[in-house]
Structure formats: C-alpha cells, structure tokens
Amino acid sequence: MSKKNNPVTQKSGISTNLILTLVVVIVAVVVIGGVLLFNRGGGGNSGGAGAPQAPVAAEVLRKPDSHALMEAPDGKVTMVEFLDFQCPSCHAYYSTAMSKIEKDYAGRITFVTRNYPLEMHPLAQQAARAAEAAALQGKYKEMYHALFDNYADWAAAGQSVSSDEAKANAEFEKYAQQIGLDVNRFNQDRVSPNVQSKIDRDVADAKAVNAPGTPTIFINGRQYDQGNAQTYAEVDQSLRKMLDEELAK
C-alpha cells in the first residue's frame, strides 16, 4: 500500500464518464503508488468505524532489534510504523505528519519503524538495506531522514517511481558520507545476509499482523485507520488525536 496517492475519496454528481474516469485513476494509483485507497484493516481508532479489534501484542510489533526514532521515558505510548521508503504515501505521511509528530511528541511517545518494502516499488529493498546498513553503524535515524528528505532525488521519476538502481545507490552512498558513515563498510553491509535477514523478519511480522500495505501504523497495539480524513492534514490531526487519547489514559 502505498495506500493513497492522495487521501481523497470525494463524492459528487455521478455520471458514466465520471465513474469510468475514477476507475482509471484508481487503477493507475494502485499500479504507480501501491495504493489501496484508504482501505485500512483494523478498527478501534479515532477515525474509523466498526467494533475495535484487540490490540496486537507489543512483542510482535517491536522486536529487540527494531529501531526507535525516539523513546519516551515512561514507555506509556508506543507508535509503530511499517513503512516502505519508496512508497509515495509513506513519503507523504512523513512530510505532512510523521516528521512533525516526531518533533512535537519527543520525550512523550516511543516511535518505532519497521521495514515493509513492497515488490511494486523497485528500489524499496535497496533503500531498506541502506537504512539497515546505516543502523549497524548507529546511524539509522540519520539515514531514515536522509531517505525521506531526499525522496525526489532517488525514489521518484516524474509522476511514477524510479527503477534506476545505479542512481539510487549513488545517492545512498552520498547520504552515507553526509551522515559520517564508513562508506566501504556501509556498502559491504548493504549486501550482507544479516541485513537482508533483518528486513525479511520485519516483513514477516508485517504479514503476521495483517498489515494491508504501507504505511501501516499501530498506536499501543491498535491499528490506525484514517477513517473520514480527506487530506493529509486531517490524517495528521487524527493521528495526534489518537496519540493524545492514549497519553491521557
């Protein structure tokens, strides 16, 4: 999932041409962005409908080798995101919500990210390997930000996603230099079995919790559902509402 090229499912007057146009657009979004237009599984959130589901166990969502972008001393609220670095929706979530939440909730919540590279994104595996290789030198957070902050330089190709591995790898090496990594070690680790095994374990956990695509977010074990949110700004608001509800308990 990339799950949404744009979180909009607007209703208007219906005509045959309009319906056909919408079908074409939705199919294009699914193919290009990995989108499953806001059709997240799991209820029990600030915006979704239906009966709440039982929370997913913390030990399933976060493993000892999972990466936390920040930790809350009290451990009261944990947000876990299964992401794909080349997913257009993950990048949109990052730009409009997650990076801001990371700053605004520092010290108040624990924010954990897990790998879920999708086959529909040609460079997703390579980007995940770059992040995991950086983690072996203690720089996961820095590479996470570099990959998303520079998304247009390696992940995108016009209105689609790029499949240019050589260009992406050159960009990854540049980010490794910028964040102070041993680049030779970084390049060796990127293709190592240990790094691939870490990614594979994350993917297995994503499938175990029935993550419908990317991004899939859990807050204290409850899957976030954007519900009636029609814009990324509204997604940000509904995520914050869910976080605030958990912090207030």
UniProtKB/TrEMBL annotation:
UniProt protein name: Protein-disulfide isomerase
Domain (Thioredoxin) ranges: 47-248
PROSITE patterns per the UniProt record, alphabetical: THIOREDOXIN_2 (PS51352)
Keywords: Disulfide bond, Isomerase, Membrane, Oxidoreductase, Redox-active center, Signal, Transmembrane, Transmembrane helix
Organism of derivation: Saccharopolyspora flava
SUPFAM superfamilies per record: Thioredoxin-like (SSF52833)
Stretches of the chain forming a coiled coil according to its record: none
Record has Oxidoreductase as a keyword: yes
Name of a matching Pfam family: Thioredoxin_4
GO molecular function: isomerase activity; oxidoreductase activity
Similarity field: Belongs to the thioredoxin family. DsbA subfamily.
Transmembrane segments: 18-38
